Amino acid sequence: MKKTIAAFDFDGTIIKNDSLWSFLKFSIKTPNLILGLTVLSPILILYKLNLFSNWKAKQMLFSYFYKGMPLREFDDYCSQFMFCITKNVNSDALSKILSHRKNGDEVLIISASIENWIKPWADSHDLNTILATKIEIDNSGYITGRFLTPNCYGKEKVLRFLSLYPNRNDYILYGYGDSKGDKELLGLSDYSFYRKFN
């Protein structure tokens, strides 16, 4: 009998908002945030106009605010941020996660967001598999500002998923997402749910 896997996007699916912007507001003082967004505004405008790639814009944004920060400090912010995530959880998504787990299905999170701030919430719900964007840390334990993995978005979601579950005929896949970054994963799924859970 084939096992069942349920893959959930995070931003806009499990939670109602964009966790990157929420985390920025949570972890960066307002004057510094305003200054940084002003400096980066040309890049953000080009991104909005589809003239600059998602991962490049995201990495530049992340690097500006977090490059040189000790990983320990960053992870402390991530642990505290779980409260903000919990407030914004989509109750329908959580119900569906619990339903899959009750049925004995394997549930995972697959997201373009940074793994570090997803993990505390995932751990609190015993969701042990997270396929997300990983950040690079130098030998001294400081954030380099670069991503260790490609941004887990679009086709990269499928590549990351299949690297973990390569034998596609061995399982039934349920996919849940809300944006164009989930299109390829939903296309891979036997049962796909776009901005819905039933």
TrEMBL record:
One of its GO terms (molecular function) is metal ion binding. It comes from the Bacteria. SUPFAM superfamilies: HAD-like (SSF56784). This is HAD-superfamily subfamily IB hydrolase, TIGR01490. The keyword Transmembrane helix applies. The chain crosses the membrane at residues 33-52. Keywords: Hydrolase, Magnesium, Membrane, Metal-binding, Transmembrane, Transmembrane helix. Pfam families: HAD. It comes from Flavobacterium pectinovorum. The keyword Cell membrane does not apply.
